[in-house]
TrEMBL record:
<dbReference type="InterPro" id="IPR001466">
    <property type="entry name" value="Beta-lactam-related"/>
</dbReference>
<keyword id="KW-0732">Signal</keyword>
<feature type="signal peptide">
    <location>
        <begin position="1"/>
        <end position="35"/>
    </location>
</feature>
<feature type="domain" description="Beta-lactamase-related">
    <location>
        <begin position="53"/>
        <end position="351"/>
    </location>
</feature>
<dbReference type="InterPro" id="IPR012338">
    <property type="entry name" value="Beta-lactam/transpept-like"/>
</dbReference>
<dbReference type="InterPro" id="IPR050491">
    <property type="entry name" value="AmpC-like"/>
</dbReference>
<dbReference type="Pfam" id="PF00144">
    <property type="entry name" value="Beta-lactamase"/>
</dbReference>
<dbReference type="GO" id="GO:0016787">
    <property type="term" value="F:hydrolase activity"/>
</dbReference>
<keyword id="KW-0378">Hydrolase</keyword>
<protein>
    <submittedName>
        <fullName>Serine hydrolase domain-containing protein</fullName>
    </submittedName>
</protein>
Length: 372
């Protein structure tokens, strides 16, 4: 073994240095070929799915050990102005918002202001079956509460400014779908209630709480509670696709999805979010782990959802995943703890879901790291 190789090997395996996907390729004596292979393969995946460069598109990012190793923007941020998307564009996150809501609840638990075992009735005394539904049930989508997005009357409030209490009152008297803890059934209503509880317990609005305890602490300077009225620098505009072509997204009041789907961010800020979780900047390790644990139904059956994340696998390796969908936007993020790999895709047309491609990119990153 020559001296140069010894020095390089020593550098690579020192834990203080971030080791990207490409370091692995160097060890395989094919750094150029391997780097090109990864980038080219990811490019091919993205450009095949988002082939219309004159339409709305998406931004993708791959990070390892907290550092960006790949990013790509394709398509337009604004069709009317013919502005290209970049990695700095701000997208609506849709249900990826639930991650922030869940962590906000755990922050309040760490502060000693609530417990996930608390009953809903402790905070909303008149909530039907509130003496049987816990905060844990809301976090894990096991409450049995009717999902307001499935209610036919939703159109009647979609463009109204609603307070959190008004939103809870909108669906609280709907019949339950099942007893609490009996099954997992993805539910937006539960996360609206969680946002309301955050406000009741903290004395701050949900928007203020997330900004103060998450965005600012994590350094997420380009993340917001969504608004169609505020001027948001580098906003990506959302679109639908019709037979006649693309149209601007349907306007809704973001007070309706509220804490279940009303945040905005960039791929760079979402990496800061992931890093803040890993580094226990927002919560201690024990409390944070509650978000990524698997839980059981009343019958003892385990299901694959923690608090705000699906807990799944890619090729037998554990992942933490969540996507989002809101008028004009679709999003997906996958984190692989064992390899500290984070992959995220944000699209500004609800006609183009990044879910499958994000998963394929994550699998490809794992393949590149198989000899690590």
């Amino acid at each position: 073994m020559n001296v140069a190789y010894k020095e390089f090997k020593s550098f690579v395996f020192k834990p203080m240095y971030a080791r990207s996907l490409f370091f692995v390729c160097v060890l395989l004596n094919s750094v150029v070929a391997c780097a090109q292979s990864f980038e080219t393969k990811v490019d091919d995946l993205i450009l095949t799915a988002f082939s219309n460069k004159s339409g709305p598109g998406a931004v993708f990012m791959v990070a390892q050990n907290g550092k960006t190793v790949y990013q790509k923007a394709v398509g337009k941020a604004n069709l009317e102005l013919d502005v290209n998307l970049t990695s700095e564009n701000v997208f609506q996150l849709g249900s990826m918002t639930k991650q922030f809501t869940a962590i906000s609840i755990l922050i309040l638990e760490e502060q000693g202001k609530l417990k996930v075992t608390d009953l809903v009735s402790k905070y909303i005394p008149d909530y039907p079956s509130g003496d049987k539904i816990t905060i844990h049930h809301l976090l894990t989508h096991t409450s049995g509460i009717r999902d307001f997005t499935k209610m036919k009357s939703l159109a009647s409030i979609a463009q109204k400014d609603m307070t959190p209490k008004m939103m809870v009152d909108f669906f609280k008297n709907e019949p339950s779908d099942f007893p609490p803890g009996e099954k997992f059934d993805y539910n937006n209503s539960g996360y609206v209630i969680l946002g309301y509880i955050i406000e009741l317990v903290s004395g701050e609005t949900y928007e203020q709480f997330v900004k103060n305890y998450i965005f600012e602490k994590a350094g997420m300077a380009h993340s917001y509670y969504a608004s169609d009225r505020n001027v948001i620098n580098k906003r990506a505009y959302g679109y639908h696709k019709k037979e006649s072509g693309y149209v601007n997204k349907t306007i809704i009041s973001f007070t309706v999805p509220f804490s279940s789907g009303s945040l905005m961010s960039t791929v760079g800020d979402m990496l800061k979010w992931q890093n803040a979780l890993n580094q226990n900047i927002l919560l201690n390790a024990k409390e944070t782990q509650k978000a990524f644990s698997k839980y059981k139904l009343n019958n003892g059956e385990e299901f694959t959802y923690g608090y705000g994340w699906h807990v799944k696998q890619i090729n037998g390796i554990a992942t933490r995943e969540h996507g989002g969908s809101v008028f004009g936007f679709k999003t997906m993020g996958v984190y692989i703890p064992a390899k500290d790999i984070y992959v995220i895709g944000l699209s500004n047309c609800d006609c183009n879901s990044p879910t499958q491609i994000t998963g394929e990119i994550a699998a490809l990153a794992l393949e590149m790291l198989k000899n690590k």
